[in-house]
Design brief:
- The protein is an alpha/beta fold and 205 residues long.
- The chain has a domain at 1-80 and 185-205: Rossmann fold.
- Helices cover 29% and strands 24% of the residues.
- The strands form two sheets. A five-stranded parallel sheet has the order 5-6-7-3-8, with helices on both faces. Strands 2-1-4 form a three-stranded antiparallel sheet, covered by helices on one side.
Length: 205
């Protein structure tokens, strides 16, 4: 049996406040794919990602998830996608551990997967600290640790390496490759040049 693509964008258009943001954009995302979305500031990279996730309603065209017209954000129980945008979506008053355990419990994550993510992102020494004490780069690493144990196949991520130093950027590149090697897929908007083995480029310029 031929597997359907995980996500398809078929000639999609998106308008906002009378302005055309996206025009006839096409993309196919299969298992094991990494699609890097490129473009100048204002080219619509973030809008495209939000359209894929169902946060924005497209003006024309269609977006299919596993061959079906659905909005994945409306079906959180199916864990169809992991979203990481510009905002980190963490509780500053809670500890690092409490932030991570909230999602681990929500997603019924196995302890070994939770422990692996913490170890991989070198977060063991931060677990008892309030998130408000973390630097911008450390908060981003916290989000990447959470992303690692999310059970969703499809990751949609916007500028994930913002605030990361070179060492942690390399760690994230390995995390991306590990995810797709297990049958996952990633759509990522990034101004940075990511050193990963195989990827497709979608230019919005």
């Amino acid at each position: 049996m031929i597997k359907k693509p995980l996500v398809e964008a078929q000639s999609i258009y998106f308008e906002k406040a009378g302005r055309t943001i996206l025009s006839s954009v096409n993309m196919t995302l299969n298992e094991g794919d990494i699609v890097i979305v490129k473009g100048k500031n204002g080219s619509g990279k973030t809008s495209f990602l939000k359209c894929l996730a169902g946060f924005h309603r497209i003006t024309k065209g269609q977006i299919l998830w596993n061959g079906k017209k659905i909005l994945p954000t409306y079906f959180p129980e199916k864990k169809m996608l992991a979203w990481l945008g510009h905002l980190n979506a963490v509780k500053l008053s809670l500890s690092v551990k409490d932030n991570l355990l909230f999602y681990a419990d929500l997603w019924s994550v196995k302890k070994n997967e939770y422990d692996y993510a913490i170890k991989h992102l070198c977060f063991s020494q931060y677990l008892e600290l309030p998130v408000s004490w973390l630097s911008a780069g450390e908060k981003r690493r916290l989000c990447l640790a959470r992303l690692m144990f999310c059970p969703s196949k499809v990751w949609i991520i916007d500028e994930p390496t913002t605030f990361l130093d070179e060492e942690n950027k390399k760690i994230f590149e390995r995390v991306m490759e590990e995810h797709v090697s297990k049958g996952g897929a990633i759509v990522c908007a990034s101004h940075d040049s990511l050193n990963i083995n195989k990827f497709k480029t979608l230019s919005l310029d």
